[in-house]
């Protein structure tokens, strides 16, 4: 005999309404801009005001600041990953793909990501781990293809690229973000000129890997 429990249809989980999704996206986009400009400790009320939502909507989506910071980090990582994937697909010249990705990542202000990663939130969250793996795979592919084509010097690694992008897109202490932006792409292009093969000098030390960056980050936290 079939029980009622066996025959009852599975309960459908309601999908978020379109306006609720738009509010969430607006909050994340606004928070990303404000975190870049002021850091992740900006007042919650100000994030809600600039996003054009009520405080209740903000807290309903992100009850804790760590929840919002994690979502902003995920958003930045996803956008940068998509830049790497599109550059690889659309550029025939492997170094042109690397150059396009580097300048695009600068426009996303990924230098602001590092201070956020020092914050008090779960850095081993499954969503973060998955997005990090996707990003690393995409950028590793750009670097390896450029090196295999003889367009990128062989004595650099993905870690070298990511450190340079992070450092060169982070405003100097005491400087305004707007006035600093004019130098970012100029200095990145100087850096990229130094990456192109054939190498014009011998680099000290060894190529930095993504594992090196993770290890150094863990030891300093």
Structure characterization notes:
With 221 residues, the chain is mainly alpha-helical. The chain has 11 helices and no strands. α2 packs across α3. The longest helix has 26 residues, at 65-90. It is elongated, with a radius of gyration of 21 Å. Residues 174-178 have low confidence and may be disordered.
Instruction: Encode the helix/strand succession as letters.
Output: HHHHHHHHHHH
Q: Residue share in helices?
A: 55-70%
> What is Rg?
21 Å
Tell me the total number of β-strands: 0
How far apart the termini lie comes to 60 Å
Strand content: under 5%
Q: Which class do the helix and strand fractions yield?
A: mainly alpha
| Poorly predicted spans | 174-178
- Main pleated-sheet profile: none
**Form type:** elongated
Number of helices: 11
Overall mean pLDDT: 83
């Amino acid at each position: 005999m079939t029980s009622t429990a066996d025959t009852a249809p599975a309960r459908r989980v309601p999908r978020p309404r379109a306006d609720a999704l738009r509010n969430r996206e607006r909050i994340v986009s606004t928070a990303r801009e404000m975190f870049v400009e002021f850091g992740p400790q900006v007042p919650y009320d100000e994030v809600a005001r600039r996003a054009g939502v009520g405080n209740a909507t903000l807290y309903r989506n992100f009850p804790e600041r760590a929840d919002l910071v994690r979502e902003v980090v995920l958003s930045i990582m996803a956008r940068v990953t998509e830049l790497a994937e599109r550059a690889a697909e659309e550029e025939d010249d492997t170094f042109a793909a690397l150059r396009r990705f580097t300048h695009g990542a600068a426009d996303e202000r990924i230098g602001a990501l590092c201070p956020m990663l020092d914050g008090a939130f779960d850095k081993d969250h499954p969503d973060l781990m998955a997005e990090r793996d996707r990003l690393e795979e995409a950028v590793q592919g750009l670097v390896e293809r450029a090196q295999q084509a003889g367009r990128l010097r062989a004595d650099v690694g993905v870690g070298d690229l990511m450190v340079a992008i992070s450092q060169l897109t982070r405003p100097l202490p005491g400087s305004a973000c707007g006035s600093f932006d004019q130098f970012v792409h100029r200095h990145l292009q100087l850096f990229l000129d130094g990456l192109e093969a054939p190498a014009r000098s011998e680099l000290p030390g060894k190529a930095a890997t993504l594992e090196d960056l993770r290890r150094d980050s863990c030891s300093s936290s």
